[in-house]
Amino acid sequence: MKQRYSYLILLCVPLLYLAMSLYLMKARGPDWIMTPNDHAYYIIFNSLSFINSEPLGRLFYPGVTNVVFGAAVVKAAHLVYGTTDIVTDVLQNPELYQTAYNRSLMAILTLSIFVSGIFVRSATNNLLFGILFQTSPLLLLRIFSHTISIGGGMPENFQLTGGLLLASVGLKLIKCGQPVEPSIISNGRFHIPTDIPWGRYTTWLAIIIGFSIATKFTALPLLAFPFILIPGIRRKLFFILAAIVSSFLFMLPIFKYWGSIFSRMTARWTQSTAEHVQRGGINSAFDRTIDGIERLYSQAPGFFIILMLCICFCVLMLTLKRFRQVHFNPIALRLMFATTICMVCATWFLAHRPYGHYLFSFVGLSGLGMILVFSFTADMIRLLKWKKRAWVVSRGLPVVIFVLFAVIRIPDFQNNVKWWGSIKDAAMGHNKILETEYRDAAKINTPHTDTIWWALIMSDFNAKGVYKKEIAGIIPPDVYFYLWDGEHCHNAGGQYFNIEEIVSKHKSVVFYGSPFEVTRTSITGVPGKYKEPADLTLHTVSWEGFKRIAQVDKIRLRGRYSFGPSENNEQSINRKSAINWDASGEFPQWLQIDFSPNISRPVITRYTMDLIEEGGEGKMPKNWQLQGSNDGINWSVLDKR
Hints:
alpha+beta, 3-stranded antiparallel beta sheet
């Protein structure tokens, strides 16, 4: 009965996580809102390709578990909700399938948090330690409550699942061959257990490692944990072999893409080095590492606090063993050193690509380190025969941490809900303006745009363009996508247009997305890589959050002009130059402008003539005609003064 109640209590934290996730996802809104995430539906597009044996697109190094899991969810959701063939149904209802995928992912993580809590409670015989371990993602990662609402099929949830299971299975070893309430230290010698089923544990650890690596290569430092924990050279070699086989089996569905994945990983490493140099002129490997660690610390300070505590306790354990003849539980000793060394390896490895969400694979180990520190402290106090104080450490400190969680994390969660809500409101407001006030206008999307059109285009782009033809039939023909070269756009069908041509074809044109000056620095930070159309005059209609709607007021001409009474003096004109014409000689005279071939049938709404310099009023014409021609031979009078 007591154990049944403990299971119910351990279910509270996973359900809390699930409730927080669903609430944040609701506050965030639909997945076509791509601020600040740019992944949208690409995982379910890749999963759809996996189902239909089509080429896979962008793989998140490698993200195999997400693609395979997504394929299972898409297939199951189609059986329940599908009304047409699976490709048509997914492309026409991507939000439905993405929501099913996100919620299934949350359910898997909720289950893994519950199971890991049971393992920790069973290993330590301490219910509070089980709850503390379950809450470690919320306690240690400042970015956790921010990123759990970013669905999009990102590997972070599976990274977290693998890390939690690895740490909880490792901790379960501490109970093998020991009393019901295992101790870490004593003033007498420990009985070294001989009945531990190392083969079974090694196999399970290798399976979890293979799962984690197949989810994301940033989990590679996890290899250090079982390698140090497992005793004996033969067992270690067996683990390495089993981990390689496990990783191979998990990545088997994308076997033919291995070459492109590894080449992309190499490119990312080079890009990371360039980003460090760009950010602060950092060239040396040592300085890049220090800079990366500082950036990681700013995103996950709790992780580094636990790491420093683990390092300090490792030093203390070695000191007590060497000089005070204090004996340690050998499994607990291995756990402490394996956890600490693995966290150090992760810090060094990720410092070269310092993004806090890459630490998700190691959150479980930081939770394990926290429990070992508490257990070690409580046993040391108990050894000094301060039983009441030991109880305070093993039972009271976790309660204090829960209170700190409520004090620190709840306001943080509320701020995140508010922040996501503001982004959703801005996106919904902008889309309503586009649908009502600019229904008939051409809409040019610039990265990153919070529209269903941009989400479909980017998702298909990341999925290798397999569904370009189908998506071209969904996206309206007056929707375009800017190429960041200063001149060109493309439509959903992949046809390219000069901006002049788009302006000449439509009565009204609007740009929607991040302002050019913001996007130039936020995407890569490389000056000049992304060019804005400098020859446009834009009028901002609406600006909320990170996005704006801007209407095109003017576009400068480009083409050639010629003038004279009889001779043809032809000169070029670009969009930034004005035409200076000082007529002399016999009348009548003419000025002919040949528009760029990109401008088809331009609409002239107004024209002006101005003085070249002050005092030249006498040179202004008194009578003139404005004529137009489609072939340069037959002319029609458009205006006469």
